[in-house]
Design goal:
The protein is globular. It has a single domain, classed as Rossmann fold (3-Layer(aba) Sandwich), CATH 3.40.50.1360. Helix 1 crosses helix 2. The chain contains seven helices and ten strands. The strands form two sheets. A seven-stranded parallel sheet has the order 1-10-9-6-2-3-5, with helices on one face. Strands 4-8-7 form a three-stranded antiparallel sheet. With about 240 residues, the protein is an alpha/beta fold. The model has no long low-confidence stretch (mean pLDDT about 100). Bound molecules: fructose -6-phosphate (F6R). One of its GO terms (biological process) is glucosamine catabolic process.
Length: about 240
């Protein structure tokens, strides 16, 4: 695990985008694991700028998002499919056929989990997995007590996470769906390389536990200590409780 600390959120996002762009240029057909959330917004904005100003080419990219809220259709403005369209997909030359987000409306969540895993396997696995971290230590929506070997499945969101994400739902945690489909911790650990980005004071305590504490299913991000090619990119505020 390599921890890289940048002075502020903007410099952290710049470095993350530069790293992702380098990976895209290195491999003609690259499979990206993508995250949503506030941390990713600036990173995607910089990647869009790179596409427009420098011709960064997304035509060879395949993508798999980590998660989707159960009960929200792709067209729902709060779905993660809508988030991806809004922040990245519609602004770059990625082929939408090659973009994947779990189906939050699937009738049979067990089959949907298996189908998603199979789609990832069919393209040869994920080359670069981008991650944020939740205040509960989740990666994807792997809330506390997610098995370290877990695969794509449905998971209940903790009240803390529903509060953390309430802003998008008019500030009301009750309006945040209570379940989500998420790649498992085991799925994430199979990516060939991982880049986790954390910004701000609110992530400092959980980040220190994930990076320096014991590996535990109570903090899913701590499982990243097992990965041989995992970079943690943080601003000074998020790094403030690292020893
Ligand atoms: C989103 C996801 C989550 C977020 C995490 C941090 O697809 O998988 O794990 O990365 O909740 O969210 P922000 O960036 O909003 O603090």
């Amino acid at each position: 695990m390599e921890v890289i600390i940048r002075p502020d959120a903007e410099k952290t996002a710049q470095l993350a985008a530069t790293f992702i762009a380098r990976k895209i240029k290195e491999k003609q057909k690259i499979v990206l694991g993508l995250a949503t959330g506030r941390t990713m917004e600036r990173i995607y904005a910089i990647l869009v700028q790179m596409h427009k100003n420098e011709g960064l080419d997304f035509s060879g990219c395949h993508s798999f998002n980590l998660d989707e809220y159960i009960g929200l259709s792709a067209e729902d403005p709060n779905s993660y499919r809508s988030y991806m369209d809004y922040h990245l997909f519609r602004h770059v030359n990625i082929d939408l056929k090659n973009t994947h987000v779990p189906n939050g409306m699937a009738q049979d969540v067990h089959s949907e989990g298996k189908r998603y895993e199979e789609e990832i396997r069919k393209v040869g696995g994920i080359d670069l997995q981008l991650l944020g971290i939740g205040e509960t230590g989740h990666i994807g929506f792997n809330e506390p007590l997610s098995a370290l070997m877990s695969r794509t499945r449905d998971k209940s969101l903790t009240p803390h996470t529903r509060r953390q994400n309430a802003e998008m739902f008019g500030g009301d945690p009750e309006k945040v769906p209570s379940r989500a489909m998420t790649m498992g911790v085991g799925t994430i650990l199979e990516a060939r390389s991982i880049l986790l980005v954390a910004l701000g004071e609110s992530k400092a305590s959980i980040l220190a536990k994930a990076v320096e504490g014991p590996i535990t299913s109570m903090i899913s991000a701590s499982a990243l200590q097992l990965h041989s090619a995992c970079r943690i990119l943080v601003d000074e505020a998020a790094a403030s409780q690292l020893s």
